[in-house]
Amino acid sequence: MQVPAPFGYERATSVDHAIQLLEQLGPEARLVAGGHSFIPMMKLRLAQPEHVIDINPLAAELGTISIDGSDLVIGAMARHNDLLGSAVVGEHFPVLHDAERVIADPVVRNRGTIGGSLCQADPAEDLSAALSALHATAVIRGSGGTRTVAVRELHTGPYETVVGDAEMLTHIRVPIRNGCGSAYEKVERRVGDWAIAAAAAAVWMDGGIISDAGIGLCAVGAEHFVSTDAEAVLRGQAPSDDVIAAAAAAAAAGCNPTTDQRGPAEYKRHLAGELTARALRRAIARAQGAAA
Amino acid sequence: MSHDHHNSVSVTVTVNGEQRTAEAEGRTLLVHFLRDTLGLTGTHWGCDTSNCGVCVVAVDGVPMKSCTVLAAMVDGCEVTTVEGLEGPDGLHPIQEGFIECHGLQCGYCTPGMMITAKWLLEQNPDPSEHEIRDGLSGQLCRCTGYHNIVEAVRFAADKLNNKEVSA
Prior knowledge:
The structure holds 2 protein chains of 2 kinds. Chain A is an alpha+beta fold. Chain A is built from 12 helices and 13 strands. Chain A has helices spanning 15-25, 38-43, 59-62, 80-85, 87-92, 94-101, 106-109, 114-120, 126-133, 228-234, 241-254, 265-291; strands at residues 8-11, 29-32, 51-54, 65-68, 71-75, 137-142, 145-150, 155-157, 160-161, 168-175, 180-188, 195-206, 209-218. Chain A has a 5-stranded antiparallel sheet with strand order 4-5-10-6-7, sandwiched between helices. The model of chain A has no long low-confidence stretch (mean pLDDT 97). By secondary structure, chain B is of the alpha+beta class. Chain B folds into 2 domains: 8-83, Ubiquitin-like (UB roll); 93-166, [2Fe-2S]-binding domain (DNA polymerase, domain 1, Orthogonal Bundle), CATH 1.10.150. Chain B has 5 helices and 5 strands, in the order ββαβββαααα. Chain B is globular and about 50 Å long. The termini of chain B are far apart. The model of chain B has no long low-confidence stretch (mean pLDDT 94). At the A-B interface, strand 1, helix 2, strand 3 and helix 7 of A face strand 4 of B.
């Protein structure tokens, strides 16, 4: 029987209360939201917190998905199925629906949260790549106030983020800009598994030119889940097979996959390039469809 | 600060319509709370890694894998297990479907399958074969090859839809 090691259980009743508990209980306390990554890690003793602070009572406060000004705002406690079921998300950022369809399975998606996924910082976490491609920002709250960090600056390494011991991620903000198209491509060993490799592409078209781009890479050791080289190749160009191929080559060259049970490094590097190209073709088509 | 790591939490849940209160350790998983503390052994316990889905129960109507939920997390919630599917009029159409279509052999996955299938039909009363297979993709069955499970869910969908028409 696998159960977590003993811990002190606390239940937060508001964001302020959660932060207060984090300050009071110290650095060996951890927030748990859906728990679908964290509880398995506790069972394996890969995580052994002294205190667990349950933030599920904040689901109403932090579980909404809405438009605020020119941003899509996703509450950290939104469940994966909330994101997948949101029409406004699909309208503006289909890359998020593409990614959610291939994250785990429908029952896991009922429970796992967007904020929990990002803070888990698994190197194969799909939304880290997708939201990085969209140039999203993370809103982080502590007792001293609120700060924002680009999602592509959130992760400092496997299972590590810039969120401090007594801080919590409360929202993700995704800027809505005209002419956007986006898509996600993933290869996994079986339905619902972690990626062997995956790529997220976002383009912003202006007068037939790619004015801005985001390329996210998942599970291939890309620094901060992105390929800034591929983005630089795309910016200022009219979309063409040659431009897409050059961006894909840059994405493949810049990642750093490792050989493991999911496949050899060179296979993953090949996937990083090919999936970048496929995601870009769909993202560009969607941007052109949106502009038409 | 001293802290009792074995702190127990009082958990009150409405299980299959009946309010139950019991003490649990903070680390107690919902599947063990249901089976060992409340004696509801219809919910099965399988892979322990949120892959197989035999432990699925509905919390406030939404199916989740109870091996990966702390009992303390569902304090104040309504939980439906397989024991709660049968109504005053007899078996739930999902249960009838599994019998009529031979949707089980060993039966280990069946409680979780039926809880998720019920939710699936609440979301989508007339699902295609693909939608049923996708909806149940978080549950593993090693006996049936899934064919008869899909048939069982379709049986239940047809029965529920006819009921609505005649009602």
